[in-house]
From TrEMBL:
Keywords annotated in UniProt: DNA-binding
Annotated organism of origin: Phenylobacterium montanum
GO molecular function annotation: DNA binding
UniProt name for this protein: MmcQ/YjbR family DNA-binding protein
InterPro entries listed in its UniProt record: YjbR-like_sf, YjbR/MT2646/Rv2570-like
One Pfam family, short name: YjbR
Amino acid sequence: MTEDDIRRIALAQPQAEEADHHGMPSFRVCGKIFCTLHQDRPRAMVKLDAEDQANLAAGHPGVIEPVPGYWGRKGSTFVWHEKVDMDLMRTLIEMAWRNVAPAKLRTAPRGP
């Protein structure tokens, strides 16, 4: 997975926008961040719920891990994108988008 792949997946989510977040690209829906790209390392951050974060980190050690400290406890999750395939990354980004998108947008019909 490359940063361009992640950008393409993130921006394909309904009403997703890219914006700067402390010098790194972030992807937002209705102003809320669901994914960031860390340009100093091959990792992204996705915002998951606690149960998904724990299950995915346990199932993919060394690939998916909670962000240390407060932000990790709030669902921020690192993904080493050089170690994941397109399907897993797409699933993680879609989960993160659903986690922060407003309910009205989450339940709206999606394209084909």
